[in-house]
Amino acid sequence: MATTLTLKELSKKEDRFTHGHRMCSGCGAPIVVKIALMATDYPVVISNATGCLEVSSCISEFTAWNVPWIHTAFENAAATLSGVETMYRSLKKQGKMDREVKFIAFGGDGGTYDIGFQSLSGAMERGHDMIYICYDNGAYMNTGIQRSSATPLGADTTTCPAGSVIPGKLRSRKNLTKIMAAHNIPYVAQASPSHWQDFAKKVQKAHEIKGPKFINVIAPCNRGWRSKTNDAILLSRLAVNTCYWPLYEIENGTTKITVTPKQKLPIVDFLKPQGRFKHLFSPENEGLLTQVQDEIDREWEKLLKEAKTD
Amino acid sequence: MAKVVAVTGNEACANALRQVNPDVCGIYPITPQTDMMQRFASYIADGKVDTESILVESEHSSMSACIGAAAAGGRVVTATSSQGLALMWEMLHIASGDRLPIIMPVVNRALSAPLNIHGDHSDAMGARDTGWIQLWSENGQEAYDNTIQAFRIGEHMEIRLPVMVCLDGFIISHSIERMEYLEDQEVRDFVGPFKNFLPLLDLDKPKSYGPLILTDLYHEYKRAQHEVMTKVKDVVLDVAKDFEKLSGRKYGIFETYRLEDADIAIVILNSAAGTTKDVIDEFRDKGIKAGLLKPRLFRPFPFEEVAEALKHVKAVCVMDRADSFGGYGPLFMEVASALYPLERKPLLLNKVYGLGGRDYLPSHAAQVLTELHDISRSGKVNVLKEYIGVRE
Questions:
Q1: Which class in CATH covers the domain with range A9-309?
Q2: pLDDT in tens, B186-208
Q3: How many angstroms away from the CA of A204 is the closest CA of chain B?
Q4: Hey, is the C-beta of A275 within 8 angstroms of any chain B C-beta?
Q5: What ranges do the domains of chain A cover?
Q6: Which of A30, A100, A235, B353 has the most C-beta neighbours closer than 10 Å?
Q7: B3-247 domain in CATH 3.40.50.970?
Q8: Which of residues 165-224 of A touch B (CB under 8 A)?
Q9: What is the pTM assigned to this prediction?
Q10: Which H or E run contains A259?
């Protein structure tokens, strides 16, 4: 029986990702991990790409993981887990294992959108029974806020700095969620820690579907976003309510928006509290700000149409 | 009962893997390894093994998946060549650092650029510092025998390290030879059931694989890897003893040929050793005391034993089918290091031969032996490192 998704029930569950990890105060990533593991009512094996989460959760003889956990390198959380899952299937087939086990890979956007993209695509195409969860904070935060293909248009990072000639990132984000959907895998979703119940439901649902699943979760990083330490939930909620980060799922090809903002807020509400977008509010970058809003409107309209058609 | 067959090196290795019946294998094509693992894929398709395959999208993912599978707890194999091994490089260190006994035939092939699919040793020599045990094979029989023994060596509870079994691309991988197969049951009994060590799938005792370890303990982990390598040699010899009882074929950490009383000697790996032995016989017939040393265990390198075997020789040529540009050939560097502590050292030469599948002919061996014979009398080495068989 899946745990009822109420705080009362969830609070009774044993922590599988424990306190004592060394993630920054206010980081979104451990919230993502905690929700995903609370929504997992099975024995689970975790694979973790190199990144903030990995370097901060298992150091020397200390580990924050109360479940089997493996990290090998940066670009291969999916490939590594595909090996673990294949060994599980082999042992099960040979009668050497009988328990039902679930498999989750965690990677940041660098390890997922960029360097781990091939490994992820391969594992999904091969049909391994696993959930890949990307915690997307929009840059290589672990190495000090470098631009990735998940970095939003206009953002100031250390490798696309907002300078006197170039105003930050000039390219739009890659839409990885849609790319994963194009793999025709049975379940793809976007989620946010601000909407924990929606996210937990998606994880529970994904576990009940056999085969490869992908969930993309926004994970605010106050260091990289240059926002207040206690704003992770506020900012991820604003990401949803401005439709910068729509909450939806694509199950067997059918798109469903799972949370529709009561009132679609202007993107500036999401951008304003973040230092990485500060330069967009100078008069000379007005055009870029308009471009950001236009793009979000266009993508949201597209998603609404897809959800309607399906 | 042994069965006499006529098969290629690739087929022999695939058959050894079938007989061992591993739990998981990674499969990705690369010339000249491709037909080894495609043969294995057909064993899976025909239900001849229990193995689950992972048909990966690159060699990097192949080694990553093999690491995941081996950490999960079971017997894991893959095979590769050349660029494939180069692409795995990062993960090779992780397989050995995590002490996972993955077994991998490496069908030796040149590295780009220029692109070349033929046999040389640049690939495996480029991986010599990755912490893997390396066994080298002169022919299909040795590749088959080494593959079977590799499981016992790598999976030994005192060792737990991955093993590469090296065989020459095309020359061995694609040439049909007469050789002997063991019975399936004999191989299974010899290799034995896989023994787990801290498996990830032990759900009740969760383990964390692959921590961050900085200045406090990293150095100690690496020393542990160094120390385990010092134990490998004895295990290789013990396993070889058992294997001899089973097969009648004797293996050591290297092979010597007419070396005991030799004045001059060639040190050479893999298939070229066969050609060299024939030419040594011709020189012996002429009254010149020539001999050969063919390393089998290249990692760890048996320094003391190699020095002992070569100490009486007047002049030695170490022949490399790979180069460390700007340095000496990789095999030469090991042999030179082995001989350095001797009070009376043989004179040393380094010849680079056969890159990118360039033929190694009896005339090349004769040329080297003639030069060694001259050096043994004059005591003078003119050019220490030189390419032979070059089109000028």
A1: alpha beta
A2: 999 999 999 999 999 999 999 99
A3: 20
A4: no
A5: 9-309
A6: A235
A7: yes
A8: none
A9: 0.98
A10: strand A254-259
